[in-house]
């Protein structure tokens, strides 16, 4: 009964966050997850509700994440001709960007003294949230911390990415797409579609391929490093 | 009426396909003892099935669009779940923030630069 009430609170909060995001044309800072979580947390604090009570209802929404992850196959299949046409450069760009993001993240956080659970949750930061949470689960990271890190990563990439690339003289739409999809997943892809259809498509493809390859390889690396 | 029924059946079949792919993927990874998330294995499996069958059934396309359009909703519980890790955030928050900013910008630039380099190389002559 109480669990059901928290699902309703979550749905209402999400609907409001979506409406806000639409009003500001999908600005990355108005990320619906970020905006929707805050009122729910505020209500929990106000009513002195422990997280376990919320999670009883929240688990129903989290359960849908598995099938939704599988569904990522559909946009990838739709864009398959584009993937094949640029397969070599695409895979090289994604692999290089992905390895850079993971290693810079782990080394800098480790150098600044972050703990092992934080490092494990940080490692899958540049892949789309459902895949990152799945990776955190199999590597004994913290899925909800991983999700938060992924979202902040996407916001940083979407807000600063196009600006930085332009400053460095990289203006090619396909390159912008590959960079945003590889380093900033879905939030970066939403930003990429604002730049144009071509940028958005390449970003979506890069996000999908990066997610798959990272999920297949990163857990081995983490088990070897921290296992 | 007939059309609606077909669509409902198509959506149910699509839901079944997604769940089955996830279950098979999860069971296979657990059976093989591989540290790969089950849903990702299911994604690869479904991609393979689509490639072999050569098309996306209408119901599956519609259900996937619906799920992916509202993907953010499924993360709200995770966002709220961050409450459970406040102590860890207080300890590592600053290190994580620095790491996120540095690595995201580095990953962006390297991905774009390597992609451009490889594309110019593979096309032989730059346009």
From TrEMBL, chain A:
Q: Name one Pfam family in it.
A: LrgB
Query: Which is one Gene Ontology cellular component term of this protein?
Result: membrane
Q: Where are the transmembrane segments?
A: 58-77, 89-112, 145-165, 205-226
- Membrane topology classification: Multi-pass membrane protein
Q: What is its main location?
A: membrane
Instruction: State the UniProt keywords alphabetically.
Output: Membrane, Transmembrane, Transmembrane helix
According to its UniProt record, where is this protein located? Answer: Membrane
Q: Which PANTHER family match?
A: PLASTIDAL GLYCOLATE_GLYCERATE TRANSLOCATOR 1, CHLOROPLASTIC (PTHR30249:SF0), PUTATIVE SEROTONIN TRANSPORTER (PTHR30249)
Name of the protein described by the UniProt record: LrgB family protein
Origin species: Pyruvatibacter mobilis
